[in-house]
Automatic annotation (TrEMBL):
This is Sugar ABC transporter substrate-binding protein. One of its GO terms (cellular component) is ATP-binding cassette (ABC) transporter complex, substrate-binding subunit-containing. It comes from Nonomuraea longispora. Pfam families: SBP_bac_1 (PF01547). Belongs to the bacterial solute-binding protein 1 family. The keyword Signal applies. Keywords: Signal, Transport.
């Protein structure tokens, strides 16, 4: 048994004992309080929005609630709570975590039909709340798609139009690198800024939008619980090769990118060291404030030469955790979270603390909540967004992919096709270890 599978089995054996156990309250008087965990830094604007959501739920339902905001080592702390048989009642967590959480026995199945307001939630969002066994284990809460942040002032300085093809995008990146778009008389800018490091799988996370935009994928479903690795698909290889060309041939990527995570890359973009950043809408208000609204535009990821359109889709679900003594309150919170009122609170208008990036409730008017028209680009891009597949454990697949993709960007002599064949073999083995092949 692989170490990954062994670890999952050990945690699962702990988790199956949770049913019937108390919620994560730390003292008897907390037992009637709904404990809600969210992956956000404590005291952040997003954590404050989560508290507003909980307070509004408490006011509407009469159920006391408590928000616990954790960012670092979130899954590790959930594992610890599972071992102590004290999972929180509610966890608001990434859609990509559904496979791992469900396989460990942490989640209650959700009956969509009995959930008030479920018919107002988009079908694509419900898809991200469905595990590989075809059952629903969460209520959708937030969605997001990825698009290109571009320095509009730079683009106008080099006299070019917004990119509509991959060739246009590469040409614009070259102009930003070669034509001194910031006007300081120095050749010190780059076209692309990329979080291309391996930490938390960032290289594959970044590449995924272009892979999807070209009709490629990491793995594809072959039926319930069955997947096949597709990193050797020509469309996937073409996307990785396109990015290697930016690193190695045209040299339009910011220096040091192969070691950077998003924290560093956000700063690189804000400091004007590069002009094109493919990322999500959660940094829109930050960049508007830090760079200037008139200097910034958002455009869709161009359709690839061999497929598309497509881009990475992500979001958060409301997970109803197993073992809770507050099952009726769990259901009520899920209903409130997907309601128009709950979604509007989570959106936080144009402020800096949204925990709902794109609303999953189709009755919520985006334009009525947010005045910045750049949000509309993300909303339209979501129509062809691709979520990570609901394999048992997506993390090792993303990490293995990041290691291989990072290697071909860091080593310009690397043969992309050969490396993607090697990666495909590795992902096949990983799927087999997860009994998902």
């Amino acid at each position: 048994m692989s170490r990954r599978l062994l670890g999952t089995a050990i945690i699962a054996s702990l988790a199956v004992t949770l049913t019937g156990c108390g919620s994560g309250g730390s003292s008897p008087e907390d037992n009637n309080s709904l404990e809600i965990w969210i992956r956000q830094p404590a005291d952040s604007d997003a954590a404050k929005t989560a508290q507003k959501l909980a307070d509004a739920f408490t006011k509407a339902s009469g159920t006391p609630s408590k928000v616990v905001a954790i960012f670092d080592d979130f899954e590790t702390k959930l594992n610890q709570q599972a071992a102590q048989k004290q999972l929180p009642d509610i966890v608001i967590n990434d859609t990509a975590q559904i496979g791992a959480m469900q396989s460990q026995g942490w989640l209650q199945e959700v009956d969509k039909a009995s959930l008030a307001g479920s018919d107002q939630v988009s079908e694509l969002a419900w898809k991200a709340a469905t595990a590989s066994d075809g059952k629903t284990y969460a209520a959708p809460f937030s969605a997001q798609a990825f698009a290109l942040f571009i320095r509009k002032d730079w683009r106008e300085k080099v006299d070019m139009e917004p990119p509509e093809t991959w060739e246009d995008l590469a040409t614009l990146a070259t102009a930003f690198t070669e034509k001194d778009p910031d006007g300081n008389g120095k050749k010190d800018t780059s076209g692309f800024v990329i979080p291309a490091g391996t930490k938390r799988g960032y290289a594959s996370w970044y590449a995924s939008s272009l892979i999807y935009a070209n009709g490629g994928d990491f793995v594809k479903a072959n039926g319930p619980g069955a997947f096949t690795a597709t990193m050797n698909d020509p469309k996937t290889v073409e996307a990785v090769q396109y990015l290697q060309d930016q690193f190695c041939t045209t040299k339009t990527v910011n220096p040091g990118a192969v070691s950077n995570d998003t924290t560093v890359t956000h700063e690189v973009f804000e400091k004007g060291q590069g002009g094109i950043y493919l990322t999500g809408p959660y940094v829109l208000s930050r960049f508007v404030n830090g760079i200037g609204t008139d200097k910034l535009e958002v455009v869709p990821v161009p359709k690839g030469p061999s497929g598309g359109p497509g881009t990475l889709g992500e979001g958060e679900n409301v997970y109803l955790m197993a073992g809770s003594e507050n099952q009726e309150a769990q259901k009520k919170f899920a209903e409130f979270a997907i309601s128009a009122e709950g979604q509007r609170i989570g959106m936080d208008k144009d402020n800096s603390g949204p925990i709902v990036r794109l609303p999953v409730n189709t009755q919520v008017d985006m334009a009525g909540e947010r005045q910045d028209p750049r949000w509309k680009v993300f909303q339209e891009s979501y129509e062809h967004a691709v979520y990570a597949p609901p394999v048992t454990n997506w993390a090792p697949i993303r990490q293995d992919s990041a290691d291989s993709i990072n290697a071909v960007w860091a080593d310009c002599s690397a043969d992309v096709r050969a490396k993607m064949e090697e990666l495909n073999t590795k992902l096949t083995q990983e799927l087999q270890s997860q009994q998902a092949s």
